[in-house]
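Let us work through a complete example step by step.
Step 1: write down the sequence.
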Amino acid sequence: MSERPVVGGAGTLLAQLKSLPIPEGWLACDGKCYDGENFPELWQLLRHNRLQGDPPGYFRVPDEKPFLPAGVLIQLIIRAT
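Step 2: predict the structure and record it as tokens.
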């Protein structure tokens, strides 16, 4: 049995304490750009979430900053695999 339960599929958003490490297969919702070849399932969901100048085949994860006020002790993470 794995230590962490499997929750939802690619694209599932969760809130967790910032003091916890981000689990394997998950990404922080920090607005960063990722190569779709590394995360094909998530790319299928977020391929239109790009900024001008992002390379073809890349996508951006959502950015938690507009949703969480500064000083909050939780972070949003998105399942990538």
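Step 3: interpret the result. The chain has one domain: 13-79.
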